[in-house]
Amino acid sequence: MNMDQLTKILRQSIGNSIQILSCDLVGGGCINQCYHLVTDDRAYFVKCNERSYLDMFEKEHEALVALAAHANLLIPKPINSGKVENDSYLVMEFIESSSQSTYYWERLGEGLAGMHRQTKNLFGWETDNYIGRLPQSNKWHQSWTKYFVQERLRPQIKLARDSRILPPDVQIDLEKLCGRMDQYIVPGLPAFLHGDLWSGNLMTGPLGEPCLVDPSVYYGHREIELAFTRLFGGFDERFYQTYNQCYPLEAGFQQRFDIYNIYPLLVHLNLFGRSYLSDIRQILRKYL
Predict the structure, then answer these.
(1) Cα(251)–Cα(275) distance, rounded to whole angstroms?
(2) 99 located within any domain
(3) Do 17 and 117 lie in a common domain?
(4) Do residues 144 and 229 both lie within one domain?
C-alpha cells in the first residue's frame, strides 16, 4: 500500500488535516499488511488487506471494543474500519512496547481471571466472527459440549475434509471424539473469552503491563482459553499460579487441555497445512 492510500485511510478515519510524518511496515501476523504511522497528531497502527476482508476488520473492531469493556487490562483502542479503493483497513491506536514489569505475569493472571468471571446464561456471541482469517460460528447454545462440537470442531473438520487435507481415518476418529465429548469435558459457566489467546496475541505496553491484541471474543468455557495458552508455550508459571489463586479451576483441568487444543490445531491445519496432523493424531490416540 502506498503513502497516498495510507493518507486517505487516516483522513477518512481521523480528519482531512492529518499529516503522516513517518511510515514503517511492521509485523502483524501472516494475514495482513500492517503499518506504524506517526502523524502530526499521534501514532497509529493500521492493518490493511483486500476489500473482501472488510467484514473481518469490522468484527475485530467490535471485538476490541467488547474486550476493553470486559477486561481490566490494556487493549488497543480501535478508531475506524472501512475501505479505500480496492482495499479494506482497520485503524487503531499504536501501543508503544517496552520490557515487562516485575509483576507482568501476575497482572495478566489477575486480569484474565477477572475477565473470565464475567458471565452470561448462554455460550456463544451476538455475531459470528473470525479465527485468523477463517470464519467462526457463534450461535447461542445452552450446552457447552454442544457448542464446542457444533460451533468449533465440526466446521473445522468439514473445512479440512472439503480441502482434502484430512485423512479419512483422522476424520472418523474426530467424529468418534465428538460423539463422546460429554465423557471428557465438564460443565462450566459461560465466561467472556479473548478467544485467540496465545503468546503472539500478547504484548507488553509502555509501562511494562500486559496488553491483549487480535481478539476473537465469545462466551465459552474458560478452560479452552487456558488450554490454548499451553499449546505453543510462552506463558510464565506465575501467570497460571495467580490465575488459579484468583479463580480456582476445577480438578483435573490439565487432563482436559489436550482435547480443547484440537480446535486450534484444526484451525492451523486449515490455515497452514498437514504439518499439524501429527499433533491431532497424538491427541486422538490419547482419548480413543
Answers:
(1) 32
(2) no
(3) no
(4) yes
Count of helices and strands (H, E) across the chain: 10, 11
Concerning whether 182 is annotated as a catalytic residue, the answer is no
Of 87, 196, 214, 258, the catalytic one is 196
Is residue 25 one of the residues assigned to a domain?
A: yes
Last residue of a domain, one of 58, 93, 128: 93
Q: Give residue 283's domain range.
A: 104-287
Domain identity same for 205 and 129: yes
Taking phi first (over 0 means left), then psi (-120 to 50 degrees means alpha), and beta for anything else, what does residue 195 get?
left
The answer on 109 and 29 residing in a single domain is no
CATH of the domain at 46: 3.30.200.20
Q: Across the strands, what pairs with 4?
A: none
pLDDT digit string (tens) for the chain, length 288 residues? 888 899 999 999 998 788 999 999 987 667 899 999 999 989 999 999 999 999 999 999 999 999 999 999 999 999 999 999 899 999 999 999 999 999 999 999 999 999 999 999 999 999 999 999 999 999 999 999 999 999 999 999 999 999 999 999 999 999 999 999 999 999 999 999 999 999 999 999 999 999 999 999 999 999 999 999 999 999 999 999 999 999 999 999 999 999 999 999 999 999 999 999 999 999 999 999
Q: How far apart are CA 38 and CA 164, in angstroms?
A: 45
- Residue 118 CA to residue 71 CA, distance in Å, equals 9
What's the burial of 88, exposed, middle or buried (CB within 10 Å: 0-12/13-18/19+)?
Answer: buried
Same-domain pairing of 218 and 132: yes
DSSP character at residue 98: -
> How is residue 202 written as a grid cell?
500478547
